[in-house]
Write a structure and sequence with these properties.
51% of the residues lie in helices and 16% in strands. It is an alpha/beta fold and 382 residues long. The chain folds into 2 domains: 239 residues, Alpha/Beta hydrolase fold, catalytic domain (Rossmann fold), CATH 3.40.50.1820; 123 residues, Tetratricopeptide repeat domain (Serine Threonine Protein Phosphatase 5, Tetratricopeptide repeat). α5 links the parallel β5 and β6. The chain is elongated, with a radius of gyration of 26 Å.
Length: 382
């Protein structure tokens, strides 16, 4: 009995660590069962109100783990958000071709392809939206045959997905022309990534590059578009090059303020540093539907820009923002103290440092620092 209990604990621990489970999904459209891989973010159970982007991975047997690994790595460094990853298994080699069957003359799904298309759109995704806390940002990814097929979801008046990762796609009829035309018509944000390599299948590569050439004429600021051609990669190895590029492209606005962003954009502003910070996070919410508190390091970047350009009045606005997100901490009072100190109003600075002393430490700010700064202001007042 004890051995059984120990094994149960080990299995549970491993599943929690891996964050990957298998569910059997009974589908009327497919006329049978289909294995579905599910990976929920580490914080899914911690915050019951938070919603997460969805990534639906086709060809899950070999694509699921590479996507999951890239997402885990990027999230570790806070470059990528936590994402709910769902994988659709297509166990037999012929199954993926049956799932992707299209009419040669129209390029639209037929027979088993139509069933699979409806399975995704009318069964699986509605089930996922009902079962899990999913934000209004849904991605789909596939490779060669399934990569071509996933583009069909773009054709709908209201696409099922907001983002498409098409790895060395095998296009259906006229797709290299239809996709640019469709992308040019969007009035809401849409994300599109596709890739090939110099070692890719020739027939695939030519049509993929034709699509890219046509996209160069598309002028639509609602389209977040990226194309990669990898030198030295094969039809299969290009997948491992493509996955991080696609994810980092889609979630670029999520990333913390980088050194390059600070030097090339923020510091060069004459004013409006706090407004830049607010707009960065507003854009994240508008485009990716991700709501999150402003990172402490991003506050520090704006603090550095204010000091570098001697725009000390902006500390007032930064303090208001700090109070909104870190109201119990000493951050807001510290910024007000910084403003008064740098404007040589040492009396008010001393009061604000004492006020900060009463609040909770945050980051590198602590009570010893606030006390020492208060004493320093006293000496400057004399």
């Amino acid at each position: 009995m004890k051995v059984v209990q120990i094994l149960a604990v080990l299995v549970l621990s491993m599943s929690c660590y891996a964050q990957k489970t298998v569910e059997i999904f009974s589908s009327q459209k497919l006329g049978g069962d289909r294995d579905i891989y599910i990976s929920l973010p580490p914080s899914y159970e911690k915050d019951k109100d938070q919603k997460f982007p969805l990534l639906l991975v086709l060809d899950a047997e070999y694509l699921f783990d590479p996507f999951l690994g890239a997402l885990k790595y990027g999230n570790y460094w806070d470059d990528l958000p936590e994402v709910i990853v769902i994988g659709v298994c297509q166990n037999k080699n012929e199954e993926r071709y049956d799932d992707s069957r299209v009419d040669e003359e129209t390029g639209l799904p037929i027979e088993t392809g139509a069933n699979f298309y409806d399975f995704i759109g009318t069964e699986l995704v509605p089930y996922l939206l009902k079962t899990y806390r999913i934000a209004p940002f849904k991605m789909i990814a596939g490779h060669d045959t399934t990569a071509g097929f996933l583009n069909l979801f773009l054709y709908k008046d209201t696409p099922l997905f907001e983002a498409y990762i098409s790895l060395s796609p095998e296009y259906g009829f006229e797709m290299e022309n239809r996709i640019p035309e469709r992308l040019s018509s969007f009035t809401t944000p849409i994300y599109y990534y596709h890739s090939t390599s110099n070692g890719d299948l020739k027939s695939f590569k030519e049509r993929i590059k034709t699509l890219d050439e046509k996209m160069k004429t598309v002028q639509n600021d609602k389209v977040n578009y990226k194309f990669d051609e990898f030198i030295g990669a094969s039809h299969y190895s290009l997948v491992l090059h493509s996955i991080p590029n696609a994810l980092y492209q889609f979630f670029a606005v999520y990333q913390p303020i980088t050194t390059n962003e600070f030097n090339e954009k923020i510091v060069k502003l004459e004013y409006g540093y706090v407004e830049y910070l607010k707009e960065k996070y507003n854009t994240l919410e508008k485009t990716l539907n991700i709501q999150m508190p402003i990172r402490l390091n991003d506050f520090k970047a704006i603090e550095a820009a204010i000091i570098k350009n001697k725009m000390y009045n902006e500390f007032d606005e930064l303090a208001i923002l700090a109070d909104k997100y870190y109201g119990k901490s000493m951050l807001a009072d510290f910024y007000m103290a910084q403003m008064y100190e740098r404007k040589e109003d040492y009396k008010r600075a001393q009061k604000k440092y004492l006020s900060a002393f009463q609040m909770e430490p945050i980051g590198e700010l602590n009570k010893d620092m606030m006390y020492e700064k208060s004493e320093e202001m006293k000496k400057l007042m004399n």
